Amino acid sequence: MSKKPTLKDVAHEAHVSTATVARVLHGRGFVSKEARKQVDEAIQKTGYRLNFLAQSLRQQRTKTIGHLLTSISPNPFFAGVELGVENEAIQNGYSVLIWNVFEDPKREALGVETFVQRQVDAIIFTTPIDPKNVETALSAQIPVIQVERPTKVQSHKVLVDNYAGAVSAAEHLIQLGHKHIGYIGGDPQNYLTDISVDEQRFSGYRDTLIRNNLPLS
User: Fold this and answer.
1) By the number of CB atoms within 10 A of the CB, which of 5, 120, 149, 193 ranks highest?
2) Per-residue confidence band for 10, with pLDDT thresholds at 50, 70 and 90
3) How many CB atoms lie under 10 A from the CB of residue 59?
């Protein structure tokens, strides 16, 4: 088996120092365009690859994000969020581990424990099921982001303006000439959340119909 190329091999091939190669690989420090081109060509020629495991041990960062999804299908909302997370992660040199929860708190707990063991740099809940699982992630000193339906546990959040969305939807139907507009939504009591998405949506629907002198259905 041939020996794996090393940083020194790249430096030798590019006729630069190992420090210059390291600056190119990590994107830190000044490197001239000519030297950068030489290093890039040397990397291609030698087939050198960064040892991410060793790098993670040195930096105590895995450049990995754990994403707990309610389910990537059939609801396109969750697939859309995952695509956005993945695109942003890749642009910033991160990878994403996906764990489908299927609204099962035990499965969510297992996902959190797995991500903690893998030492991910952050955990995204889209959307959280059990507040205890959010607390577990935070107790491991891992940054947490709760999406859309946050629990009462305090962490970073990414929220949707559900009230404004319901208002827009109702106004659109009114503009089309509809007079009897029904509302179908979830029961707020079914969610252990800090912000009731369903209450916001119903309020937007209700206020818009009242404002336009239309009956609630």
Assistant:
1) 120
2) confident
3) 10
